[in-house]
């Protein structure tokens, strides 16, 4: 999309200069606003045309039966799906007697701008109705980051040539009709008419609708307050019925006059609160929003984001496209997590209904790493949500005849929602991913209160699961058999390296936490013997290795399997999952997404540099990247093993996943993992950042096309800025007590009055491995990025460590 002529490359905004109805659904995703609690897709105010109407409240879902032709023990019986709740974005307009509908009449101009600094989505358009009345319509909207239950719109209409009579209908609408999904397994099973009316009201310029989801029984409330200003004679009327509440403003406007409407919307939902309780809750939220007013909300939003960017901004010189994309990505990841407050962070955030609104390991392994160093309070809340789902995870473990907790592969409120299938049901690694996120958060923040309470319990229950899932063989080696790792084209295999290494880290971290808090651990029933058994298992974990090829195996026996017939697979047969039976994918060497390569990133200390390079070279030609989670991981490892040009191409793929709709499903919502992966590719890839004890290590190296990369991180209450150029890196402590960090393995101390500037050396070119034919990362148009020196051939310069100057 961004390469579409109507999208401009600018550092702080995403601007669309013309409306292309063919791109409407995707644009609704990229222009979505959210605070993690409320999600408003970028639907046009007038409601139509639309790609996919979408208003979401984190956690509001409907349940449905999961049908099986043949039932098996332990198959989940019901699924959960995100619900499109009451739409508060609707503002319809009648110009004289014709509806403002961009499919008719003449559209002279249409511009939408998502401003990443103010957090506002602006729209301006000029349109002439079929009867020849020309008007300008302007709107701005926000989903408040400071008032969690509130969203707001400012809407203005003015005639441009002659007097017009306008009617503006500002509405709350429930049970909107949704387009049917086209059978893509990654889209949603949207329930029809999911909301049952409980109450409706209109009083003056205030509107309220209360509903209940039919099967899950959740109560949902939306209330609206308006401030309308227009010329004398402007009339207001309000009305409501079960699924619609409406304020109608009628006015005759002369050229130059305006009708202006401020619409404040408050949302609430609950599984437990009574109807009066919920009614009062939204009225109270509206009162708070009212006291700030539109201008106050705009000012608060800006303040919130100024503070955020001062801790999280990433600057990229040399590639304007990446500069824009990383800010766009950072903004959307923030939106997904900012005010989720002990609710899940879905794979699409609240930008669409893709994957039914489910949360996967994407959260802990991709989204939380970025937030840990930029908005740690969101990570604490997200992990607390996981902890709140422990009862369901324990139940699932018991059902599977395991100990501890087995967290779900996909869920909205905690129960396993993956109908049985090998890739989901056996993907136990999600347990270790959660544990990894706990360890990362605690070491980055030193949050002891969380560590001893929430962290400990999550580590203990996940470790218990591993210990009961795995077993020691006659030689004492610890195996975890019959599991699925990250690569979903390989399922139910023995000793998946990623899973084993992550499980080992999980077991060790749990034993360490028990040693830190023995009394609390005892209350969870952990004794010395149990913790010792975890350490034994971790120390003895088996990691399959092919001595013949001198590479680590993705799972035991992987390198022996028949290679996939890449030459006989045409480019239009990707993603393979839509064109080939899974049984065939499972028995061949073909990798959907980084798996062993991801293990080398997350458990880097296990592999030496030589193996990292060789493993990367082995798996690269087998990896088809049919998942949006892959490119960013490959970027990080390509950078680490010295293929900076390749890493740069993967960075582009991760960064433009949604802006260029690379997987053709941005319409269903944004790919949060890939957005966070953009940050990861830059910070962990070219910055070489890795957690190291209570601090961080860096190994900076820039690709030719990027002349400067700077990023900010929060660690242990300090604010750090890292600025990398080809010949030097500068570590600056912006705030906090002196910090010892690691530069290419050497300790370096920074303090607020002593920044450290270290020289970097260039290293020679290395020939990168190839990809499966037709799956090479797309080489992008370097003219867009104004990227001096970006070349299309493999020009690879690695910078490395150093001697230092201060
Ligand atoms: C990937 C999973 C991922 C899921 C949701 C799948 O295509 O293979 O790893 O968790 O999408 O993003």
UniProtKB/TrEMBL annotation:
Q: What is this protein called?
A: Glycoside hydrolase family 65 protein
Q: Which PANTHER family match?
A: GLYCOSYL HYDROLASE-RELATED, GLYCOSYL TRANSFERASE
Q: Which organism is it from?
A: Streptomyces lanatus
Q: Which residues form the Glycoside hydrolase family 65 central catalytic domain?
A: 327-680
Ranges for domain Glycoside hydrolase family 65 C-terminal come to 689-750
Q: Does the keyword Nucleotide-binding apply?
A: no
**Location of region: Disordered:** 177-204, 758-806
UniProt GO MF annotations: hydrolase activity
What InterPro entries is this protein classified in? 6-hairpin_glycosidase_sf, 6hp_glycosidase-like_sf, Gal_mutarotase_sf_dom, GH65_N, Glyco_hydro_65_C, Glyco_hydro_65_M, Glyco_hydro_65_N, Malt_Pase/Glycosyl_Hdrlase
Which domain of life does the protein's organism represent? Bacteria
């Amino acid at each position: 999309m961004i390469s579409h002529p109507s999208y401009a490359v600018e550092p702080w905004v995403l601007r669309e200069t013309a409306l292309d109805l063919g791109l409407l659904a995707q644009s609704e995703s990229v222009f979505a606003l959210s605070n993690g609690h409320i999600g408003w897709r970028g639907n046009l105010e007038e409601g139509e045309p639309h790609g996919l109407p979408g208003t979401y409240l984190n956690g509001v879902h409907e349940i449905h039966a999961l049908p099986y032709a043949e039932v098996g023990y332990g198959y989940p019986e019901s699924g959960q799906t995100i619900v499109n709740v009451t739409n508060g974005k609707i503002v319809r307009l009648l110009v004289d007697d014709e509806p403002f509908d961009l499919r008719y009449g003449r559209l002279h101009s249409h511009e939408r701008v998502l401003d990443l600094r103010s957090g506002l989505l602006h729209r301006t358009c000029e349109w002439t109705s079929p009867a020849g009345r020309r008007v300008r319509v302007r709107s701005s909207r926000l989903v408040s980051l400071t008032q969690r239950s509130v969203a707001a719109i400012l809407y203005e209409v003015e005639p441009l040539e002659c007097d017009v009579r306008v009617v503006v209908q500002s509405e709350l609408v429930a049970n909107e009709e949704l387009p049917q999904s086209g059978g893509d397994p990654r889209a949603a099973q949207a329930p029809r008419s999911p909301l049952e009316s409980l109450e409706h009201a209109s009083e003056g310029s205030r509107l309220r609708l209360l509903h209940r989801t039919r099967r899950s029984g959740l109560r949902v409330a939306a209330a609206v307050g308006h401030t309308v200003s227009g010329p004398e004679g402007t009339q207001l009327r309000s009305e409501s019925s079960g699924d619609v509440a409406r304020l109608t403003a009628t006015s005759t406007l002369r050229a130059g006059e305006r009708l202006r409407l401020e619409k404040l919307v408050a949302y609430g939902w609950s599984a437990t609160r009574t109807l009066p309780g919920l009614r009062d809750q939204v009225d109270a939220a509206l009162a708070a929003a009212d006291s700030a007013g539109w201008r106050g909300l705009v000012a608060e939003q800006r303040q919130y984001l100024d503070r955020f960017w001062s801790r999280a901004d990433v600057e990229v010189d040399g590639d304007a496209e990446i500069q824009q994309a990383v800010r766009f990505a950072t903004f959307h990841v923030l939106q997904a997590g900012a005010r989720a407050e002990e609710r899940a962070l879905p794979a699409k955030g609240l930008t669409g209904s893709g994957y039914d609104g489910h949360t996967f390991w994407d959260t802990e392994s991709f989204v939380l790493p970025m937030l840990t160093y930029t908005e740690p309070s969101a990570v604490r809340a997200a992990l607390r949500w996981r902890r709140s789902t422990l009862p369901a995870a324990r139940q699932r473990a018991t059902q599977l005849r395991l100990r501890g907790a087995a967290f779900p592969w996909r869920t909205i409120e905690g129960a396993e929602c993956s109908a049985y299938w090998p890739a989901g049901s056996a993907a136990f690694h999600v347990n270790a991913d959660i544990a990894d996120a706990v360890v990362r958060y605690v070491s980055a923040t030193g949050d002891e209160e969380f560590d001893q309470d929430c962290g400990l319990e999550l580590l203990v229950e996940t470790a218990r699961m591993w210990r009961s899932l795995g077993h020691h063989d006659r030689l004492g080696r610890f195996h975890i058999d019959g599991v699925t790792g990250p690569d979903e084209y390989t399922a139910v295999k023995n000793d998946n390296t990623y899973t084993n290494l992550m499980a080992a880290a999980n077991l060790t971290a749990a034993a360490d936490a028990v040693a830190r808090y023995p009394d609390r651990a005892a209350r969870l029933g952990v004794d010395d013997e149990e913790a010792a058994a975890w350490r034994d298992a971790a120390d003895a974990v088996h990691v399959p290795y092919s001595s013949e090829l001198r590479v680590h195996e993705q799972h035991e026996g992987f390198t022996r399997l028949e290679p996939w017939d890449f030459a006989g697979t045409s480019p239009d047969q990707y993603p393979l999952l839509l064109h080939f039976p899974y049984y065939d994918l499972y028995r061949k060497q073909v990798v959907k997404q980084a798996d062993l390569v991801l293990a080398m990133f997350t458990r880097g200390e296990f592999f030496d540099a030589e193996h990292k390079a060789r493993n990367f070279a082995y798996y690269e030609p087998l990896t088809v990247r049919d998942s949006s989670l892959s490119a960013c991981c490959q970027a990080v490892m390509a950078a680490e093993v010295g293929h900076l040009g390749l890493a740069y191409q993967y960075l582009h793929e991760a960064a433009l996943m949604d802006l260029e709709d690379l997987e053709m499903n941005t319409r269903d919502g944004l790919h949060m993992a890939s957005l966070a992966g953009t940050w990861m590719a830059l910070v962990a890839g070219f910055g070489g950042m890795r957690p190291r004890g209570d601090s961080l290590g860096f190994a900076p190296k820039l690709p030719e096309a990027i002349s400067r990369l700077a990023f900010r991180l929060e660690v242990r209450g300090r604010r750090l800025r890292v600025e990398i150029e080809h010949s030097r890196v500068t570590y600056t402590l912006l705030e906090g007590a002196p910090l010892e960090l690691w530069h290419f393995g050497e300790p370096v101390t920074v303090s607020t009055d002593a920044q450290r500037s270290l020289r970097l050396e260039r290293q020679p070119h290395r020939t990168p491995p190839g990809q499966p034919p037709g799956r090479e990362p797309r080489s992008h148009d370097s003219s867009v990025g104004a990227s001096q020196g970006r070349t299309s051939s493999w020009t690879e310069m690695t910078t490395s460590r150093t001697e230092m100057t201060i």
